[in-house]
Amino acid sequence: MAWVFLFVAGLLEIVWAFFMKESHGFTRLTPTLITLGAMIASFGLLSLSMRSLPLGTSYMIWTGIGAVGAFVVGVMFLGETVSLQRAVAALLIIAGIVTMKLA
Predict the structure, then answer these.
(1) For residues 103 and 93, what is the distance between their CA atoms, to the nearest angstrom?
(2) Using an 8 Å Cβ cutoff, are 7 and 65 in contact?
């Protein structure tokens, strides 16, 4: 169950990152509230996963899901550019996540 908690926590990190951008510096109420709710839920699920998973593994996978997910959301929904360097960086993060999971 810890892996499920960790995966959902990572997805919620993507949610709060997107809505933080949409909040325009916390000047828009609804995106601000979604940001705060997703942050609380993400941290809560991360803490539950850490009950049985190692700190380094949990934190790396959580931040990796958030980083790569935010990159993908930025490209797909916010019109951010995809360069070879950015794509390689995202792939390296994914490789690190997979390696950490297998270790």
Answers:
(1) 15
(2) yes
pLDDT in tens, 44-90: 999 999 999 999 999 999 999 999 999 999 999 999 999 999 999 99
Integer Cα distance of 47 and 59 in angstroms: 10
Amino acid at 40: I
Q: What is the C-alpha separation between 22 and 19, in angstroms, rounded?
A: 5
CA distance 101 to 23: 33
Residue 17: what are its φ and ψ, rounded to 5°? Answer: -65, -45
Burial class (CB in 10 A: 0-12, 13-18, 19+), 18: buried
Residues 6+ apart with CB under 8 A from 40: none
